[in-house]
Amino acid sequence: MRLTPLATALTLSTLLFSSAHAQTPPSPLTLAQTMADPDWIGPPVDQAWWSWDGQRVQYLLRREGETIRDTWQQGIAGGTAARLDGAARTDLDAAQPVLDAQRTRMAFVRNGDVFVRDLRNGALTQVTRSNDDEATPQWSSDGNLVFRSGNDWYQWRAGQGTAQAAVVKAEKDPAAAPKADDLRTRQLDMIATLKNDRAQKEAARLQNEQWRQADPTRAAAPTYLGDDVKIVDSALSPDAKWLLVVTSAKDADDGKAGKMPKYVTESGYEEFEDVRVRVGRNAPVAHKLWLVDVNASKATELKFDTLSGIQADPLAAMRKAAKQDPLKGNRAVRIETDGDGTGPAIHWSSDGRQAAVLIRAVDNKDRWIATIAPAGGDAKLALRDRLTDPAWINWGFNDFGWTNDGALWFLSERSGYSHLYVNDGGGKSRALTSGKWEVSAPQLSNDGRSFYFVCNRKWPGDYEVCAVDRNGGDVREVTSLDGVEDFSLSPDGSKVLVRHSDSYMPPQLAVVNTSGDGLVQLTDTRKPEFKAREWIKPEYVQVPSKHGAGVVWGKYYGPKNPDPSRKYPVVMFVHGAGYLQNVSDRYPNYFREQMFHNLLVQQGYIVLDLDYRASEGYGRDWRTAIYRQMGHPELEDYLDGLDWLVANKGGDKDHAGIYGGSYGGFMTFMALFRSPGTFKAGAALRPVADWSQYNHEYTSNILNTPELDPQAYKVSSPIEFAGGLQDNLLIAHGMIDDNVFFKDSVMLSQKLIELRKDKWEIAPYPMERHTFTHPDSWYDEYRRIYELFERTLK
């Protein structure tokens, strides 16, 4: 069946879809269903964890028609899952538990409260019950448990209950002597009553402090850092003796935030929402690091002078060219959330003797891991690892921690690919893994003898759970599931709970022994209608690069039995985020788009989806190929992909289209503006038109800042090339997009008006943000895309 442009609008909502692989026609699939709420597909397993006894797993599923996530439980031998509700929820375990040194108890956070589970008998102890959000529990070697509520820290020990362990305040120390002031001195000298009142207050304060120090039932005294700082984060040693505190300047200017208008509102009036700061409108605020002796209530600032390269300015030449003053002293740094996303980039060893800190330069050209041993009396940061890059340090692959025997482990991209390293004590670090593949999400086994991690050794899109001995050796693959998303080790360390997916299977659960045998598939939450349909299996292809990139991996969708005598119109898809991987054996972020690609194939098209340069999963050089030239290497990859389709799949070069959202929308602009005539049509969804309008954290890494590197923004922003448009363009954008602002599309529209371009249109969506949530909007957007391709590519 082929739709003509005139018939499209009338028949799209009832368009029949038949799989290219089906022996008999399947049940009808409409475009409306393809773009419907994914309830009809079945819910993915969002998160999963072990029960305390290792015989059951618990996991979250979205309730049909709701945003609520229900908790389900299932035995590891298989069988029927049960939803846990009501009173049954009081005995739940939770994700990311931490085990004590003897591996007899685990602590976890559920509903913002801390619990301790005895693994010998299952007894559950509730440590806190509050409306605050407690977090980051950690055991000491001798059984002390510390955790936080905001930046207040507490400790718990069996039989002794919970006590406040450390308090730090961004206030003046009331015990500090006032600054010298002639007028103040004269008043105290002249007025005896003032002097006596002051002396009495000071005596009462000293008496209270003496009582506190002599009374073991009293909480630790607060530590005061002054009223000119803001507390950003903190981390308490598990023995509760030392606290590391991250601060920023109190009145630092973060830059001017934007105001986003909202037109469709409950009030009936226009409303405005505060949104992020643009790139270069002030760099992220620098951090300081303090070491607090909890018992003495004394804070010492830890200087960053020991970090190699801290005074070098990798942007000195650009700064000089821009007639800016050279940097003086150390570069600004930040201590942010670490690789696992659970807390500050600070990890204490279980004995409390050492802490490791991950520090990043604000310019993101350097990342350091330093350690501190506070008990020595002259605590300084000791550099353990420096990763430096003339482009930028990766956003991910920053996990680090301590082995059971006190060695530091960490991920680094120093070889060009993320690998696992161990540093046994200040000397040269040893690589435990190597090769042209990536290590992510490492976990140390409970006994400390092995590391488990996610790897993609066979090809960049094949993800498995792998393992290596803590001292090095051969890497072994524990699973053979192809699409591992994440995993967790059982409390006894004998099994792995794996969340995995496939092209048409949302994330599901399986359990396997750590030896690699005994795989049991636990869940399949797909609905019968979706599961029964025979979808087109994507073909994973390698497109040769004419531009020095080696090969570009792609997913090809085409007819099962292609006709060698005909040419097929081409649609090329561009994934979003830039640094994202869509060519993998996992369930794609773009699952709706994948169904749409099936629909296009049935209607006579062929489709190619590429992991262009900048995509995740291919190492450092692939990621940084776009430094200071966004949209250029990626376009080369798509031009190579089009040539490959023509040479190998019967693609019609004269009838090619391109589309994508976010970064994919940006690339659609670049394709149509910079290579006019190549793509007869393009759909740019939620697109970036001018990178100076995007955020600082992402954009400044790749393009520096507009003031410092204006040329990078000029060659990377589509609006600069809009004069090249000669083909058909659809722009679709949510009007309350707080990621890529709708303003980008409005500005480009004005530019196209001024250039008197005539083959473009814009579709605004008043109630959608960056990712659409309403099926009506999804349907309308893809109806327009389909009509565009039918109108222009056939």
Describe the structure.
The protein has 794 residues and is an alpha+beta fold. 18% of the residues lie in helices and 31% in strands. It has 14 helices and 45 strands. The strands form eleven sheets. An eight-stranded mixed beta sheet has the order 38-39-41-40-42-43-44-45, with helices on both faces. Strands 21, 22, 23, 24 and 25 form a five-stranded antiparallel beta sheet that branches. Helix 3 (182-190) packs across helix 4. The radius of gyration is 29 Å and the shape is globular. Mean pLDDT is 92; it is low at 1-23.
Write the SSE topology.
Blueprint: H1 5-11, H2 31-34, E1 47-50, E2 56-62, E3 69-75, E4 82-84, E5 98-99, E6 105-110, E7 113-118, E8 124-126, E9 134-139, E10 145-149, E11 152-157, E12 161-166, E13 168-169, H3 182-190, H4 192-214, E14 223-224, E15 229-236, E16 242-249, E17 257-262, E18 271-277, E19 288-293, E20 298-302, H5 316-321, E21 333-334, E22 346-348, E23 355-361, E24 366-372, E25 382-388, E26 400-402, E27 408-412, E28 419-423, E29 430-431, E30 439-444, E31 450-455, E32 464-469, E33 476-477, E34 484-489, E35 495-502, E36 505-513, E37 520-521, H6 528-532, E38 539-544, E39 551-557, E40 568-574, H7 591-602, E41 606-610, H8 620-624, H9 633-648, E42 651-661, H10 663-674, E43 681-685, H11 696-703, H12 710-716, E44 728-734, H13 742-754, E45 760-765, H14 775-792
